Amino acid sequence: MLSARERKRLGLDRPITRRDFIKGMMVGAGSLVLSGCSGSTFGSDTPPALTLPPSVHSYFGGDTPDTISTCHRVHNGESFDQGEDTGEIYDLVVVGAGLGGLTPEEKILLLDNHVDFGGDAQRNELTVKGQRIIVTQACDYQWAIGSEYAQVKKLWDDLGIDLSPTSDLALAPEAYHEHLFVNGEWIRDFWETGYNSVSSPWSKQVQDDYDAFWEIMESFKWEPWAQVKAELAEWDKISFKEWMEDVNGWDPQVTHLIDMWVRSDYGAGVDTLSAACGFWNFTGGDFVRYKWPGGMSGFARHLVNALIPQALNGQDVITGNMDRNALDSSENNVRIRLESTVVEVRHEGSAESSDHVLIK
Q1: Which residues are CB-neighbours of 309 under 8 A, at least 6 positions away?
Q2: Where are the domains of the chain?
Q3: Crossing angle of helices 204-219/252-266, nearest 10°?
Q4: 61, 98 in Cβ contact below 8 A?
Q5: What is this structure's pTM?
Q6: Which among 121, 101, 103, 120 is positioned nearest to 111, based on CA atoms?
Q7: pLDDT tens digits for 289-347?
Q8: For 27-127, where are the alpha helices, taking DSSP H only?
């Protein structure tokens, strides 16, 4: 939750005009010319082959030190060289190739500072005793989509994804298990019963507070809506961490436990998430989950396959080997350029008369 001063500093108080997006965007410089910023050059029609370094598997959501270092330099006010003008012009440039960015049309370039697309919906691929294993790195699963989200449901239908209860992707509540590796051993079904097992390292107080957390969540009713809406408005003013520790007085270890869960769902911690959003996430009872190997990276791969089919070239969407050179081919209407950190966006001339936006 940003203060009014911080929102103004970031420019969130200013409207984004249609001119900023529709009149065309000119890419000004490639990330490779920026010292300390890895990536492919903006001017190359055939970027070099992309390989995922082993270190990427050690960081949440693909945020390796190399990935975020340039962002920290921007935040610290460091200036960058002018770079090389590649002369590329697009109808729209999207900064970020997460799930929100992967739904464009027209002639579009998506720029992302990570080594893979999907944003928080990334996956790890490991080889264990000769067996290929695809596992979730961040976003884990999709809830059933309600009738009020007709456009979202249509997108999934258009992609050919079955979200019926009989789908191969469907996991009933009783079929979903989460185990935690603590102090050198696995605690089975940690969130359900394992936290108070003999193997649990947490004190009786922490276990009791954790029970109290779930008692509130499981007993919460979303009606009458007028009353709930008023409560949510108040909870939206404080973080989920403040609600747990200051309002309820629970042990910080409980906050830490819930924080692990929240980060896997949102990519943000309980100190960032509002209490209202926390309630929205943890209440409402059991639901069917839809899950691919590798979590929501499966949805990202479906989107990329629809936008750039030559990247998979007819292979299975989930298990196929992605041709990452094809993502940024000059023949595409939609191009995805990875390892490209945007450090500056400005109008060419005055904002009132400019026909282009320059991106460095």
Answers
A1: none
A2: 4-126+293-359, 142-290
A3: 50
A4: no
A5: 0.64
A6: 101
A7: 788 888 888 999 999 999 999 999 999 999 999 998 999 998 898 999 998 888 888 88
A8: 65-75
